[in-house]
Amino acid sequence: VQLQASGGGLVQARGSLRLSCTASGRTFNLAMGWFRQAPGKEREYVAAIALSNGAAYYANFALGRFTLSRDDARYTVTLQMDNLNPEDTAVYYCAARVGRLMETQRASKYYNYWGQGTLVTVSS
After folding, report:
1. For the CA atoms of 105, 107, 110, 111, what is the dihedral angle to 10 degrees?
2. Which of 49, 58, 107, 114 could form a disulfide with 62 if both were Cys (CB 3.0 to 4.6 A apart)?
């Protein structure tokens, strides 16, 4: 599975950004998600979605601000991020796993495939 991420950039606090990620290769029974890593911090889970049924799960900090959607025909997921704050500044990574997506699978070890990171910078 190959992942191609796009989006990101610089935005002011309370602004919005959209990240997209498209999978190619072995796309059967795929779940896709996003992680992020801020400078000096560990990589953390943001959200994930099952391409088959659209079931989506979010980290607590993302609830109510971020929305993850999928276009299963195009094997593409989109992370809409609203009301961003400077603490959201990080490199965001698209990730994918083959198999059932469970809400508890929030560690990077559950994801076999990774895209290149895309930088999101939120200015105050």
Report:
1. 120
2. 58
Which tokens sit at 24?
Answer: 């190619």
Count CB neighbours of 28 within 10 A: 8
Angle (CA) 74 76 81, round 5°: 145
Q: What is the pLDDT of residues 23-61, one digit of tens each?
A: 999 888 999 999 999 999 999 999 999 999 999 999 999
Output the pLDDT for position 88: 98
For tokens 């599975």, name the residue. 1
Element containing residue 7 per DSSP (H, E): strand 2-7
In angstroms, how far is the first alpha carbon of the chain from the final one?
37
* pLDDT, averaged across the chain: 95
Q: What span, in angstroms and rounded, lies between the C-alpha atoms of 47 and 60?
A: 9
